[in-house]
Amino acid sequence: MLNKQEVAAMVQKKFRLMVEPLPDTDCEYKVDLMTLVPLCQELKAGGYAFLSDITAVDYLEQGYFRLLYQVCNYQNGDTITLKVDVSRDEPLVESVCPVWAAANWLEREVYDMFGIVFKNHPRLERILLWEGFEGWPLRKDYVHQPNKYQGRRQLD
Q1: Do 79 and 70 form a contact (C-beta atoms < 8 A)?
Q2: How large a percentage of the chain has pLDDT more than 70?
Q3: Is the pTM of this model over 0.85?
Q4: Which one has a higher pLDDT value, 137 or 14?
């Protein structure tokens, strides 16, 4: 089981050109898109068996989304955050479902709210909103259209 310091050494040894440890922290890494899945596989093999969350932040002005993956090691209580930047022009990232089954619904939530597509996801479809919903409500450029709401109807 790897602790945070051993993870830092492993990242430096195997992924040093594609993974950047963030300053002033021992548990956050900025990860290249192509390195995400191999790094996740290494982390899981090293005892980080639980993916607790995937979320995103929209950096509209800078033209990208930042995905945040939080992985936990139950043996020593460590949590590591992986930060992956994805272009707003082509919001596509490889799914980590083959690594952690918990990614299934988490990736679907991010897809539903931000429109980020997870390549090779086993069932990428809306999970919170209905299939006919237009747009991605957590994007900063989303325009609310209340006249298109098709939810509850007034009872007599």
Answers
A1: yes
A2: 92
A3: yes
A4: 137
Mean pLDDT throughout 92-110? 97
- Concatenating the DSSP letter of every residue in 43-97 gives HHHTT--EEEEEEEEEETTTTEEEEEEEEE-TTT--EEEEEEEEESSS-EEE--T
Q: How far apart are CA 7 and CA 80, in angstroms?
A: 9
C-alpha closest to that of 21 among 7, 33, 35, 34: 7
What is the reported pLDDT for 121? 97
In Å, the largest CA–CA distance within the chain is 68
- Any idea what the Cα angle at residue 122 is, between residues 116 and 124, rounded to 5°? 35
Q: How far is CA 146 from the centre of its chain?
A: 29
Q: Binning pLDDT at 50, 70 and 90, where does residue 154 land? A: low
Q: Which pair of tokens denotes residue 97? A: 């479902």
140 burial level (CB within 10 Å; 0-12, 13-18, 19+): exposed
